[in-house]
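Technical appendix A lists one of the benchmark inputs used to test multi-chain prediction within the project. The record comprises three sequence entries:
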Amino acid sequence: MNGAFRQSMSWLHTWTGLLFGWILLAMFLTGTASYFRPEITRWMQPETGKPASVSTAVAGAEAYLRKVAPNARSWSISVPDARQSTVLVSWRPQPKPGEADKPRRRGGRLGEQAVLDAGSGQIVKPRETRGGEFFYRVHFQMHYMPVILGRWVAGLCAMFMLVAIVSGVITHKRIFKDIFTFRPKKAAQRAWLDAHNLTAVLALPFHAMITYTGLVTLMSLYMPWGMVANYGSTEAYFDAVFPRAEAVRRQGPAPLIPLGPVMAKASEVWGGGRPWIVSVTNPGDRSARIEVTRHSGDQLSNLGGSLTFDGVTGRLLTREPDMGPGRRTAAVMYGLHMGRYADPLLRWLYFSCGLAGSAMVATGLILWTAARRQKLPDPDRPHFGFRLVERLNIGTVAGVPAGMAAVLWANRLLPLDLAERAAWEVHGFFIAWGLFIAWAVVRPARKAWVETLAAAAFLVAALPLVSALTSRRNLVRSLADGDWAMAVFDVTLVALGATLAFCALKAKRYKPTVKPKRKAVQPVEVAA
Amino acid sequence: MIQIAVLLLAYAGFVALCASMTKHQVETLGRTLMLREQRLLRAAGWAGLAAAYGCAVVAVGWRFGSVLWVAAIMVAGLALTLNMPYRPRGAARAGGVAALTAVGLLLLVKVLVLA
Amino acid sequence: MNKVVITPQAGAPRQPGKPPVTWRRRLDVGSRIVAGLVMGYVVAALAAAVLARLLPMSKVEATTTGMLASFAVYAGAAIWAFGDPKAWRVWAGLLAASAIMAGALWLSIALGGQA
């Protein structure tokens, strides 16, 4: 491979990595956290109990719906898995006389809702919070902007990331020779480059997969042109592929079959698969239908398909047809990105790779300043671009973890009856991140690194203690209750905080090789 | 349990591959290898990675197993490389321990299944 | 006696030996950015549409496959936009590819109709 090509790829890699690097770091960190979205939500709702078995949860939900909405137009039950402790039920009342009976608008809300405890089937009123959902959403929708704009920003960042990955691989000359090379004790530029290379190359399959599949999950927004070319619009495509059920006329009362056996039958048809969403249309009527959708985490493909049963007899009526190779590939890509299929060990491996990706972005950003510091004509007064990158680096590498911790601090400290409580928890993320950037701007750079990393370490590691002092959820009680997920959550927070503290310590002890300050060039008199 | 063996074998495989490289021989093994030893060690490394894949497929099927294997080798590679500058001999020795532990685990599973 | 005073020029490169950034270089980089970012998207979008129409599979499958492949096309175009030593070649290539694909797409729709 010739040198000029490698050089131009190096230039491209630097710019595609740098321009959106800080947003990419935030996307990586929030995305990585999202692999534990249900656990984060549970931690942030200490009023809820432990997860229960699926049959218990569904029985409780069914009993509630039969009591509260026996003659609704439709019910919906989001069946929890082993990681969630609440059941979301919703129902749509019958249309009033004279009102048109419209099928549900795709993506529209389902009328009334209630949150039930999975174990007892009773209504729970956890504190108002977005839970882990915030980290998941901000990861691909940003915040403080319309959802579609946020998704475009995420898509642009992902496209830059994809080009950065390809150009990075091309430009890395010794990718196999240097694969186990890590020399942290060498000069700054060498050490940071080694760190960037190892976090990038050793987890390269993950980074490439997560970036490409991330683009694919939103491809109907970014590249709808296939749908437009064949169907005229994306809506027409979705109508063709996911036809909406027609409104079914009520025919007269008939008892609804209990849902438990129907779900067991669904599981059997799927060879042991798990039900995820149960929708009942016209419960209590002869025309009742029960649609059971398969859990998106049963297979690599995130679309498990659905089965429709007769609501009175329990007979299987229809099943969604199998997908062809193209759609299945897209669904598998979606599934790989989301990782819902992963069992605990694989989930932790995903989490580790996500942390490696975050480290890759962070070391890349820091490498940019490390590589240019020696070339500064006056190291004490760098040019604006250098100062901007350096301060944003400090404010973001420490500020995003601090912001994520701030959401959890706000979750425990904000008054339960505060208006817009959930929104204020989210504001905490951006307020903390902003404050860290501001601190990084006003302090000398080296001190700012130590102080911000130490502050972030404290914010993260202190969370279990904050939880113990302000809520029912603490490590001792979690262990006593056998709630391993919550116990491990607290331990993980301390471990992550310790890692940040270690980084702060390294920053404090760092002794740069002292380079003689280049004298400002003096005018020289030359005798003609 | 077989899944743990996947991780252990992946780590052991990488240790062998790393130690077989001219660059890392001295720091991991304390001496330079002859060409024949180098080739053997490299083959052992690849064999370890292959064995890890086999275990992954046995544990969770070939679809999930392929994903598990890729994830395991990524994390194993990171674990090794992050330790190399600080305790190269220790990291290498851990590779041997990992291989033995993996074999032990697999035998244990076999015994439990047959029993 | 003449005194000649040598001072470093404002706007001069920060490193000795590197040529100053000329308007020609800025134009080159600027055109590559537009080619990679904008034309790259156009080419990828056309590829998605053409593949959707022309792949020998059911309509749904071809649609999905075309869209899946489009991001690789976009990335490839961006790499080429900055990798080819001659920027005019990049523009010529991307424009030609767009014209050909647009033509094929128009023909396909004119002959086969939409939806």
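Chain C has three helices and one strand. Residues 7-17 of chain C have pLDDT under 50 and may be disordered. Comparable benchmark entries are summarised in Table A2.
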